[in-house]
Amino acid sequence: MKQSTSTKSRRDFIKKSVVGLAGASVLPSILSSQDAPAAEVKKTGKQKFIYRTLGNTGIKVPIVSMGVMNADNPNLVKAALESGIVHLDTAWYYQRGRNEEMVGSMVKGRPRDSFVVATKVVGDPMDRETGLFTEQTSPEAFLEKFETSLKRLQLEYVDILYLHNVVRREAALFKPLLDVMLKLKKQGKTRFIGVSTHRNEPEVIQAAIDSKAYDVVLTAYNFKQPHRDQVKAAIAKAAAAGLGIVAMKTQAGVYWDKERQYPINMKAALKWALLDENVHTAIPGFTTFDQMNLDLTVMEDLTLTAKEIEDLKMGEKLGMTGLYCQQCERCLPQCPKGLEIPTLMRSYMYAYGYRNMTAARQAIESLDLKSIPCSDCTLCTVTCAQGFAVRDKIYDIARIKDVPEEFLV
User: Please, is 267 exposed, middle or buried when counting C-beta atoms within 10 Å of its C-beta (0-12, 13-18, 19+)?
Assistant: First the structure.
């Protein structure tokens, strides 16, 4: 019988995994001393790994880590760890807690110094119009969520705890939450603390530097950002100050189109971010074995080929805007209903780019919409800087709030 492509790919993967396990003894400790080189290249069997150190934390990791958010297959997480990936990034609310539970089950029983787990907790409530925390924002609620994360992960401590989805300097420096994070660090429940940001990244990164408290920054960084030069400069400044830099959203929405007929070149997009040596690791959210293997091959040669450079321009050539919202917020003052358009656009990307309906639904639920927005607007007054048909996208994605949750699991 002729061997199927999928079967062959799976067998090839198993072979590669065995080779990786055979070379596991040569992997350097991820908890190396702080005087380790900023970048190091090693061979594990046939697989080449490039290591960089997360700033002053001293944690040495491969430049390709795993963003677990969109993954729901425990075997994929296991395969990632056995392939040589050591850093797993999750969050309190991913898959309504199931994501952390899956990560916990996969690291259970492994030597604690053989993996790095980062989780994220949001501060509530946040004023969505200003991006600022309020007098009602509760450090106690933040602490309670984090303790739940530890139970799900079955860990006594995490390696990195992030204050998640920060968009303003004042929010990054919000003393009640920063104090509780520092307390958790002092108690040994997290080794390091960080801040994550999806928009207004340069301002938030500068705040992290100024805080003299954060150890790591998790930031959106990709080839489609119109302000990528400013983000790059902020990253360089933070790295020089000793902060560890982790890049997310490197794949820029995965597809150029809603119909998923024109995929973004994932390898090229990941290379683009990792060519910046101030980025210590990236957390692409692969969801299949083939995607994982593709991401790992990035380390064979970070150089962008001529074809890859052209592939990153595909959207421009096709006249497509892609699915990744830059979160620039220029739309906000234009909407007469005051809709949180960046969050709606992020939900659209989760649904049509990542096929993560749970994340899409959660983003919509965070807005507490009373009805389908835009339904009574005959003409949209919002002009998107990226060229999105804002009304059409909102009208489309907002329907997900009425879909029973059991259909999205």
Answer: middle
305 plus 336 within the same structural domain: no
Q: Average per-residue pLDDT in the chain?
A: 87
In a domain, 323, yes or no: no
Whether 399 and 367 share a structural domain: yes
Indicate if 177 and 85 belong to the same structural domain.
Answer: yes
* Residues of the domain holding 262: 10-311
pLDDT in tens, 81-138: 999 999 999 999 999 899 999 999 999 999 999 999 999 999 999 987 788 999 999 9
Cβ atoms < 10 Å from Cβ of 77: 23
Nearest to 85 by CA among 121, 109, 55, 110: 110
pTM of the model: 0.84
Q: How far apart are CA 355 and CA 99, in angstroms?
A: 16
Q: DSSP assignment of 279-336, as one string?
A: --EE-----SHHHHHHHHHGGG--PPPHHHHHHTTHHHHHT---S------TTGGG-T
Read off the tokens for 339: 């809709």
Is the per-residue pLDDT at 145 higher than 90? yes
Residue 316 lies in a domain: no
The reply to whether 44 falls in a domain is yes
Measured between alpha carbons, how far is 8 from 225 in angstroms, rounded to an integer? Answer: 37
CATH code for the domain of 196: 3.20.20.100
Tokens at residue 187, please?
Answer: 């108690």
* Cis, peptide link before residue 139, omega less than 30° from 0: no
Q: Is 50 part of a structural domain of the chain?
A: yes
